[in-house]
Structures are given as C-alpha cells and as structure tokens.
Amino acid sequence: MSFALFLSSGNSGHMNLRQMIINAENEYLSLLEEFFIRKWGNAKLWSHDLNHHRRVWNYSKQLLKIIDREALTESFIRKLLIASYLHDLGMSTDPGVKHGYNSRKSAEEFLNNNFTDTSDYQDVLFAIENHDNKEYGNESDQNILLKILSIADDLDAFGKTGIERYLEIYHVRGIPETDIARTILENAASRFSNFELFASGKHEFYMKHKRRYLLLRDYFEGLKVKKTP
C-alpha cells in the first residue's frame, strides 16, 4: 500500500482507533517503560530520554487520527507503540548518528522477551534502525511504520523543546560552536519538508506544527548571526 492511499480526512473508525490505542497501551506500555528504564541505566542525555519517547508516542497518536483509520489494525498500533518507545534507546550507549543499530538490538531483545514469534516484526526493527535517516528515501514511503515514526520524531524536534534538544545532542556530538546553528537549520528544514509533504492538506494540524518549526528556525537564524565572525 502506498502512503498516499493511507491518508484520509474522514472520521470513520474513530472509536475503533481509540480502543485499539487503549488496548495496546494497556498491554504493552508498562512493559516498554520498564524495559526502557532498565536499558537506559544511568545515561545522562535528557534530549532522548524516556520523556522524548513518550512525546513521540503522543505525536504518533496524533498522526494516526489524520490517516485512514479503516486501514489500521491492532497489530499496526502495537508495532507503532513499540517503535515509538524504543527508537532512540541506543542513544544510551551511542549518541551518534548511527544509534539506530543499537536501538534495533535493544528492540530485538524486547521482542524476544515478550513474543513467542517475532517474525512479523521485521518492519518494526527496520523502522527503528532507519528512523534517523533524514534524507527520506523511498524506503520510508514503502514502510508506513517508518514513515509515521519518522514524522513523529521530527515533530519533537520543533518548538522550544526542539531548540533545547538540538543544542544538547549537537554539543554531545562535538559539532563546533560556529557550525551548530547552520547544521541545525539544515537538519530542521529537512524534517519540516518531510512533514509538509505529509500534512499540507491538514490545515489546522499543519499550521500548528509549522508555527513550532518557525519558532525554532527563527531562534537558530538569530544564533547563526551572532556566531558569524
């Protein structure tokens, strides 16, 4: 199924979606949070801690409300919940751009601990490992789970929270002070373009997050001017 066919502005299936989300959270939310806390350990990286993953799951739920609910299944909701909560867990040991691989390994452990048959979860593992590829290749259109996870993750990079998150992780990654604003602006612009392709037809939702992006963009445009020799 193409991602375009997954989009819809209709209200059909709203109660079914709500119940599927409740069912998934009742069954797996506590397990995911306990697993995350145990694996995260004493890592000091607030920008990608458990609260980041909670926000990404909330953004994922918002995105689910503006796509074709008839196409959603309990299995898909469960997979998105798992991916939302484990996609950055690898940051606890490797805060670099390749953290997706370590996150995938942790997700494999969670799946093996909680499911007898994990063969149907390859799309979850693929989404987790590749969610931070901000070049947005064709694989994100083919893997609907990756598409939604990636956009939800992008939304948490905007606004005041996004400003603070960017500053922490880019400092941790050793980006020079003179390059931080420019590098963040490039990354954030790529994220917003991806979101815009998805949500430009959903005016209220789109404008809400566009304002958050512009707040972040204006802040780093100002910072870039200050850092210019």
Explain briefly what this protein structure is.
With 229 residues, the chain is mainly alpha-helical. It has eleven helices and no strands.
Structural description of this entry:
The protein is mainly α and 229 residues long. It has two domains: 145 residues, Hypothetical protein af1432 (Orthogonal Bundle), CATH 1.10.3210; 73 residues. Helix content is 71%, strand content 0%. It contains eleven helices and no strands. The longest helix has 27 residues. It is globular, with a radius of gyration of 18 Å. It starts with a helix and ends with a helix. About 3% of the residues have low confidence.
In DSSP terms, counting alpha (H) and pi (I) runs of 4 or more, how many helices? Answer: 11
How does the helix and strand content classify structurally? mainly alpha
Text of the CATH class of the largest domain: Mainly Alpha
The ordered H/E elements are: HHHHHHHHHHH
Indicate the low-confidence ranges by residue numbers. Answer: 8-13
**Biggest sheet: strands, sense, closure?**
none
- Output mean pLDDT: 89
Q: Write down the CATH topology of the largest domain.
A: Hypothetical protein af1432
β-sheet strand percentage: under 5%
Rg calc? 18 Å
Instruction: Count all strands and give the number.
Output: 0
If classified by CATH, what would the architecture of the largest domain be? Orthogonal Bundle
End-to-end distance:
50 Å
Number of domains as seen in the coordinates: 2
What is the helical fraction, as a range of percent?
over 70%
**Structural shape:** globular
